[in-house]
Design goal:
The chain is of the alpha+beta class and 125 residues long. It has a domain of 81 residues: Sandwich (Immunoglobulin-like), CATH 2.60.40. It is built from two helices and seven strands; from the N terminus they run H-H-E-E-E-E-E-E-E. Strands 1-2-3-6 form a four-stranded antiparallel sheet, with no helix packed on it. The protein has a three-stranded antiparallel sheet with strand order 5-4-7, with no helix packed on it. A hairpin with a 3-residue loop joins strand 2 and strand 3. 14% of the residues are buried.
């Protein structure tokens, strides 16, 4: 008697779980492509080549926020690298300098206006 009650209770739980985990309406290919494109455009990346050792780079990534932009860096060079950050807004362009020591990684936050965006990072400032 006891085994029968346990078996029916487990079967009911399994059926309820299966009904709850059923997927909702599948997303169309266009919706999935749009979501993937939005995610791909969220973070921007750039790099600056090293003087020594040759073939190495300092890599940068960033995402613009409302009042600031945080730039993440990873310097694979053996020396300090200076990079110029180019911000573009309705009032024109503005430049900031970012210095990173050799062999380091980290982040630096830059304050900006609401309509300003970091467009690119170039070597030397």
């Amino acid at each position: 008697m006891r085994i029968t009650k346990l078996t029916s209770a487990l079967a009911a739980c399994g059926a309820a779980t299966a009904m709850l985990s059923a997927p909702a309406a599948p997303a169309t290919a266009a919706t999935a492509a749009t979501a993937g494109t939005a995610l791909a455009q969220a973070v921007e990346r750039d790099s600056v080549t090293c003087v020594r050792p040759t073939g190495r780079k300092t890599n940068y990534s960033w995402k613009d926020g409302n009042s600031s932009t945080t730039v993440y860096f990873n310097n694979h060079c053996s020396h300090r690298v200076y990079a110029e950050l180019h911000f573009k807004g309705p009032a024109g362009t503005r430049k900031e300098c970012l210095a990173t020591n050799g062999g380091t990684e980290g982040r630096k936050k830059f304050r900006k206006g609401l309509a300003e965006n970091l467009t690119r990072i170039t070597k030397d400032c």
